[in-house]
Amino acid sequence: MTAILTVDGLSAGYGQTTVLRDVTFSVGRGEVACVMGRNGAGKTTLLKVLMGVLPMTGTVRLLGGDVSGWPGHRINRAGVVWVPQEDAVFPGLTVREHLVIALNRSCGGSPTSSGLSRRRNGGCIDEGIEAATALFPVLGERLGQEAQTLSGGERKMLGLAQALIVKPKVVLMDEPTEGVAPVVVEQLIPAIAAVAGEAALVLVEHNIDTALALGSQAYILEQGSIVESGSVGELYDRGVLEQRLAL
Question: What CATH code is assigned to 3-88+169-245?
Answer without folding.
Answer: 3.40.50.300
